[in-house]
């Protein structure tokens, strides 16, 4: 009898290392090279961020300016009978909505409220301006 393992037995199969799990996610089925891992050569093997995509920075604040412009324009439009206040709110809404629209287009974020704010602000300024001219 020879010392070779019987075909199909466990001793005939190559030895595999057990899979490595972290947080319920499969990290590795055994030893892998830097190229397979997508890692950087020389990076420590136990780096927890290894294999995960890098996150992109998030820009915050453009939506808030558009919302503020919309609110100013809407309140100015509703209160157009109080012409001086509506004129101030309309002009403030124009400035805020315009800058919110510019920021939204720059960042590629939705610009719906900025456009609605521009519309309400223009109407508030026009209606309160007509009312101011008609009263004087």
From TrEMBL:
Region (Disordered): 1-55
Regions that span the bilayer: 60-80, 86-104, 111-135
Top-rank taxon: Bacteria
Keywords associated with the record: Membrane, Transmembrane, Transmembrane helix
Designated name of the protein: DUF4190 domain-containing protein
Organism: Nakamurella aerolata
């Amino acid at each position: 009898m020879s010392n070779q393992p019987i075909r199909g037995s466990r001793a005939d199969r190559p030895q595999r290392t057990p899979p490595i799990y972290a947080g319920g996610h499969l990290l590795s089925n055994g030893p892998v090279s830097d190229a397979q891992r997508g890692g950087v050569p020389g990076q420590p093997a136990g780096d927890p961020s290894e294999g995960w995509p890098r996150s992109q920075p998030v820009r915050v604040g453009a939506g808030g300016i558009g919302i503020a412009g919309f609110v100013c324009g809407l309140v100015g439009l509703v209160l157009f009978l109080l012409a001086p206040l509506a004129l101030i709110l309309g002009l403030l809404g124009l400035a805020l909505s315009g800058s919110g629209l510019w920021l939204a287009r720059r960042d590629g974020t939705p610009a719906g409220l900025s456009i609605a704010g521009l519309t309400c602000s223009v109407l508030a300024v026009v209606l309160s301006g007509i009312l101011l001219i008609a009263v004087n």
